[in-house]
Amino acid sequence: GAYPIGQMAERGRAGLSLTEARNKAGELAQLYLSGVKDIDTYFEEAERKAIEAEEAAQKAREAEQKAIEAAKEIEQREALEREQYTLRKLCEVYTGFLQDQGKISTKSAESVFKCHVYPIKEISTLLAREISADHIALLIRKVQEQGKARLAGVLRSYLLATFNAATKAKYDATLPHVFVEFGVTSNPVTIIPAKSGIIPGTRNLSRAEVKKYLIELFRDNLIDRALILHLLTGGQRIAQLLRARVNDFDPLEGTLRLWDGKGKRQVPREHVIPLASLGLELCQALMTQALTLSAKLSANSGKTITNPSLFLSSSGATMFASTPGKRVADIVAALEIEPFDLRDIRRTVETMLAGLGISRDVRAQLLSHGLSGVQNQHYDRHQYMDEKRNALEIWEQHLEKILTVEDGTIRHQTNT
């Protein structure tokens, strides 16, 4: 049958020209001679295939666009992770957690991370889940090589605790869920030996050095009183001592209450110190001074100050935990003796108490260390009040014997 080739137009404006019609007829003739008898079906099939090819091409273009968009999404997500879930961010989350828990180690951890982790950007900007033991070892080594052995141990301890929180948070409801988002599945610090960086303190002051130290403290200022009370109470942790407020001192019972939040405790442990005579006199003097100052400050500001710090300054400020340490360093420099710090004084007191026959259990109760076990938390409710007071009475007598030549000097300072 005939196959229409289109509308004919002499000049080819509204249809095919004569030449175009001849060419078209020739193409159809060649197609017929090649064996295609049903030209309508042939062109319908060709059109179908063209449509299918275009649809396939369109799907390919759409798939390619989706792949590009997916790649961009992955890239954006990874960029966000690189920004939000780095080692630095994990350390910041951990210090925030410490602060929320009211831990006294918060400022220390923040300082150590800021000085010895964050500046090492090739490590601190890595994803926390990518941190390896090699990275941790490098951070600790850098501190160790500066001759700061104890600080290197402190850095290891904080990093270990940080990654412990991140690895346990998925199964520990007491830890914030934000730790889970870092995707940390193992602790890279565990393999680093605890002894790398930590050198146990061994400095003990002699009787003569304790005497010189006490004589240097006889100045009429709040810092020296805090250091004397630190010594009279058996070498309590200075940060805990400086947080004591007026209401923590009970003049009738003769006790000073501290709060020990050290270690893994979720709630600080109440630590009550039954004061001996000199410690009691000093606390009474501090309480009187704090109440007098707070009354003046309240009158000047129009704002009532309730329960002020036991170490309230005339400006209304409370004493930083680092301030007594600086005073001790000045004393060491003035005496020109082997350096010591407040930890060494604490160690010296415990050593001397042991020499005075005070048992290990009583010393532990008095200094509030090693008391986190199940027995101490739940079963041993004995407060050791009599034993602790007796230990401090013996200790004060020992200090007065050390100061035989300066008899009465400690008592004079407690009443100032």
What do you see in this structure?
- The protein is built from 17 helices and three strands.
- Residues 373-379 have low confidence and may be disordered.
- Helix 3 (87-100) packs antiparallel against helix 4 and helix 6 runs antiparallel to helix 7 (149-168).
- Strands 1-2-3 form a three-stranded antiparallel β-sheet.
- The chain has 416 residues and is mostly helical.
- The protein starts with 17 loop residues before the first helix and ends with a helix.
- It is rod-shaped and about 135 Å long.
List keywords for this structure.
416 residues, mainly alpha, 3-stranded antiparallel beta sheet, rod-shaped
Q: On the 0-100 scale, what is the average pLDDT?
A: 86
Biggest sheet statistics: 3 strands, antiparallel
Estimate the strand proportion: under 5%
Straight-line distance between termini: 129 Å
Strand order in the largest sheet = 1-2-3
The secondary-structure element order is HHHHHHHHHHEEEHHHHHHH
Structural class: mainly alpha
Task: Sum up the overall morphology in one term.
Answer: rod-shaped
| DSSP strand tally | 3
Number of helical elements = 17
